[in-house]
Amino acid sequence: GFFAALFGGTPAQVSGPTGPMTVVMAGIILQFSDRPDLAFAAVVLGGGLQILSGILGLGSYIRLVPFPVISGFMSGIGCIILILQIGPLLGHAAKPEGVVATLKAVPEFLAHPVPDAVAAALLTLLIVYGTPTRLAKLIPGSLLALFVCTPLAALYLPNAPIIGHVPSGFPSLMIPSIDLEHVYLILQAAFVLALLGNIDSLLTSLICDNLTRTHHDSNRECIGQGIGNMFSGLFGGLPGAGATMRSVANIRTGGRTPISGALHASVLLALLLGLGPLAEKIPLAVLGGILFKVGIDIIDWRFLRHVTRAPRADVAIMFIVLAITVLVDLISAVGVGVVLASLLFVKRMATLEESNMRIVSTPHPEAPLTADESAILRRNNGRILLIHVDGPMSFGSANNMVRRLSALPGLREFKSVVLDLSDVPIMDGTAAMAVEDMLRMIQAHDQHLFFVGMQPQVTKVLRGLDVLDLIRPGHHYERRIDALRQAAYIGGSTHPDDAPASA
């Protein structure tokens, strides 16, 4: 936690063991139960891979996560925090594992509340919500509640469950090792830890950005988390990541710099080295009350206030991510949300790209034609078909473009087809194959094909897939007017203005 804060790229982030990282590490510990040096070698190596990913700039891709996904993620975490505090607020020390188990246990909690714990929780909520703004600038309401409620509970509310025994002692140095027999398993475990650690941390970084209205450095954050995990592995510690709940609590109580993350780690170290007995007396209901406010605060009320007027698709994605976050896990929620948002974006872009494909045989207001080009089409109505694409071509719209052309009434009757790609800035491989399908369709109808212009990136893609080999020599023109004149000439036009320059 200390080194991740010191070298990381998200100032207000607090790092430490997280649920996903701990689950993965538990599997690694079981896998190498007789060789802990190999297990912690995976932690150190995973940290090294995180540093490498930051150096290579891979962390920047986290910025592509859409806002509805972040909103659902935030609100889902807020709901998780609130649900998990139901037990402690009502005085039940043994919490069920997970949100679903907690929800199932709620009737039991409500049927047997512990009065002392409920009183401590109510007093805590009164303080965290009622602390005056001026006083909160000097001491956050949550910290004030901790200092006030802990001694009061010890004196007057003895039946309220407390944290209990805190282990003590500084961890000893663990020298990791790798042998050839297990190198593949260690690399595999290290890769999973690095990938999950980066995703976990950078998602928390997005939450911090949203709360503080700042922008983190994704690649530096990967490097900082990697350094932190390398140090953790050297001392036999669990691998960690940016912890969302701790980071939100930090931000809500005024933390904005790496000092807060480093101080968090220092306090934990102090508890291990001798201050543990002070923490042992803290009532769980007091912590539950503090976290209850954190849960309320992290819910994205800004988006929820506009939910009736926001785009329906974005609202649906937000609630899907929220539900998966609460009922499954955080990483799955973000994965599903990003996929859904990406599919929605591709659909919208495909519709836009398809509308940029204009198929005309006569002058049309939507087709950007010059007066001479319009005149040629008018004189050769029914003999020349012009296909003009204005904008990018991608896999989303490629098949629909081919389908539009094949469904065109009277396609076989045209003598010549002019395909103008001069206004296409970029094209992917799927779109290039769609262009090939168009060319083969035209060839199958024994029509003359004239190809107009291409930008360098488009030329590179089409040439790389051998699509340009389908264009006969001399049928590729730089200007559309020249292609139209040649098409009219071959189609039998005798008008002097339709004669190509070569004629």
Estimate percent helicity: 55-70%
| Sheet with the most strands, sense and barrel status | 5 strands, mixed
Structural class: mainly alpha
- For the termini, the CA-CA separation is 78 Å
What integer is the average pLDDT? 88
Physical arrangement of strands within the biggest beta sheet: 3-4-5-6-7
Low-confidence runs of at least 5 consecutive residues: none
Helix-strand sequence: HEHHHHHHHHHHEHHHHHHEHEHEHEHEH
Please state the overall shape, judged from the principal axes of the Cα atoms. Answer: elongated
Description:
The chain has 503 residues and is mainly α. Helix content is 62%, strand content 6%. It contains 22 helices and 7 strands. It has helices at 2-7, 19-31, 36-55, 67-84, 86-89, 99-111, 115-130, 133-138, 141-156, 183-212, 218-234, 244-252, 258-280, 284-298, 301-305, 312-327, 330-355, 371-379, 395-406, 429-444, 456-464, 480-490, and strands spanning 15-16, 241-242, 357-360, 384-390, 416-423, 448-452, 476-477. The strands form 2 sheets. It has a 5-stranded mixed beta sheet with strand order 3-4-5-6-7, sandwiched between helices. The protein has a two-stranded antiparallel ribbon with strand order 1-2. Helix 19 (395-406) links the parallel strand 4 and strand 5 (416-423). Helix 10 (183-212) packs across helix 11 and helix 18 runs parallel beside helix 22. The mean pLDDT is 88.
Question: Can you lay out the helices and strands and say which pair or pack?
Answer:
Elements: H1 2-7, E1 15-16, H2 19-31, H3 36-55, H4 67-84, H5 86-89, H6 99-111, H7 115-130, H8 133-138, H9 141-156, H10 183-212, H11 218-234, E2 241-242, H12 244-252, H13 258-280, H14 284-298, H15 301-305, H16 312-327, H17 330-355, E3 357-360, H18 371-379, E4 384-390, H19 395-406, E5 416-423, H20 429-444, E6 448-452, H21 456-464, E7 476-477, H22 480-490
Helix pairs in contact: 2-3, 2-10, 3-10, 3-11, 4-14, 4-16, 4-17, 7-9, 7-14, 10-11, 10-12, 12-14, 16-17, 17-19, 18-22, 19-20
